[in-house]
Amino acid sequence: MKMHCQSVLKNLRQLSSVGVRNNSLITKAKIINNEVISDKSRMIRSFEEIPGPKPLPLIGNIHRFFPYVGEFHNVPLVEQMIYLNENYGDVVKLEGLLFRKPMVILFKPEYCERMYRLETRQPRRESMEALHYYRQANKHIFQKPGLATSQGDEWYDFRSKVNQAMMQPRTIKPHVSQIDQVSNDFIKRIRQLRDSKTLELPATFNNEMNKWALESICAIALDHRMGSLESNLDPQSEPQQMINAVHDMFDLMYELEVLPSPWKFYTTKKLKQFFKVLDVLYGTSAKYINKAKERLNQNQNDESMLQRLLKIDEQTAKVMAMDMLVAGIDTTSNSAGWTLYFISRYPEVQKKLQAEIDSVLTKKDSPVTYDSLNQVPYLKACIKESLRLSPVAFGNMRTMVNDVVIGGYKIPKDVHVVGAHSIISRKSEYFPQEEEFIPERWLRSNTGPLSSSNAHPFAYMPFGFGPRTCIGRRFAELEMTTLVMKMVRNFQMDWNHEPMSIRSRFINTLGSPLQLNVKDRDDSLLA
């Protein structure tokens, strides 16, 4: 059970799908909620019949998380999901957790699609309840709770307002030069950090990736440079404090939201720590947002993200900018880090990337432009393949607003349903040679057996789907694409260590130091 994640993932190819039972007995088929039902075989099974770990009287399934005796104790979340899939099938029920609603986990893309198709224009996702509790307790700051924790009309009103400013394809255009400059500064920082003899980056480079991500999202959200990439940055500096607080936030969210916790009934030690961490994050964010507003009052910049949000209303702008700063550090830095890691591991991929990017950026200091971002299909395929192998989230959750039928089982209203996309995207039936980094599978010109067009469209879902799709997707893609273009144009990257491990808690992150070997490329050798 506690074997290394990679070795466990290899067993996925041996999994068999759990479909509808007794198909041969179907005589008079009816369509109810798009599910086939037979008069002779009870095709819709009850909620109680959904397989899963059996809860014990009184203590439910909490014992599975106990130290020493629990099979889930200190086991990464992704490995817990693999275990459930292997032992119980493609629809699994997890219930009997302390003060928590039952959860149904889906390991088949057809079932995930149905989950999304059943959602209304106001999908419910009752996750991050501790964060919602914090915002309710701090209504002087969060008069509007924002996208992460709100539901119903409140969520729909907020999302409708910010969608146009953040989701249109051209919304990134005013920010391309900003992100290009941040990436240039990061390239300079890398040359300072690498060992002068071995050319290897230090074990602390993961933190430098966090600084790059913070500097990038601050430039977008506030049209301001925090100075995160300065040499010899004080460990007590505000940028570093924000980075540390984001790490603590996600770790504490895992403790409060995933593991059994009684915080809803009394103020636990972990909840107090969580509140203190959020005070640091939102206090620092609010200070920089207020400074940005003062600059805008003196020099109107209609193209800045903050200015576009302020045109909606001040409270919406403040909450959205705060969420961008907090959510845009760990997620983007780890996604970009995984992409750089895979490129360094696969020399033939890197060679193809160099040819593509060299034709777009003719010099090492050539700027990345809005047009050049659309001239790198192979790079975009690399990012997609990296997100397939190492998505930040293990899945997407919806809270059912009605009684529904998914995978042949009746699921009552208010139950949490999770599409486990991080497991599905590593299955060979959808992506042959599933453990290999093969960007070619995402190219439109590829019509062979490895083509992603052969996979179920809901097998790969790193940014979610539908009305609650990730609001920051376009900015994350801009940041990652720009950085990788600059890295590949400037350096030959190599990996001289054991394969990268995964740290899977509330989100999936790099589990080992990102110690890339970065050698300056010789432009005189270019054809």
Shape: globular
Strand order of the largest sheet: 3-4-8-5
Output the helix-strand order.
HEEHEEHHHHHHHHHHHHEEEEHHEEEE
How many H/I helical runs? 16
**Residue fraction in strands:** 5-15%
Query: Rg to the nearest angstrom?
Result: 24 Å
What portion of residues is helical?
Answer: 40-55%
Got a strand count?
12
CA distance, first residue to last residue: 51 Å
Report the major sheet.
4 strands, mixed
Compose a concise summary of this entry.
With 527 residues, this protein is α+β, with helices and mostly antiparallel strands. Helices cover 43% and strands 8% of the residues.
Ordered list of secondary-structure elements with their pairings:
Layout: H1 5-10, E1 30-32, E2 35-37, H2 77-88, E3 91-94, E4 103-106, H3 109-117, H4 129-137, H5 152-167, H6 176-193, H7 205-222, H8 238-258, H9 269-298, H10 305-310, H11 314-327, H12 330-345, H13 347-360, H14 377-389, E5 396-399, E6 404-406, E7 409-411, E8 416-419, H15 421-424, H16 473-490, E9 491-494, E10 502-504, E11 508-510, E12 517-520
Helix pairs in contact: 6-7, 6-16, 7-12, 8-9, 9-11, 12-14, 12-16
Q: Can you describe this structure?
A:
This protein has 527 residues and is an alpha+beta fold. Helices cover 43% and strands 8% of the residues. It contains 16 helices and 12 strands. Strands 3-4-8-5 form a 4-stranded mixed β-sheet, sandwiched between helices. Helix 6 runs antiparallel to helix 7, helix 8 (238-258) packs across helix 9 and helix 12 (330-345) runs parallel beside helix 16. Mean pLDDT is 89; it is low at 1-41.
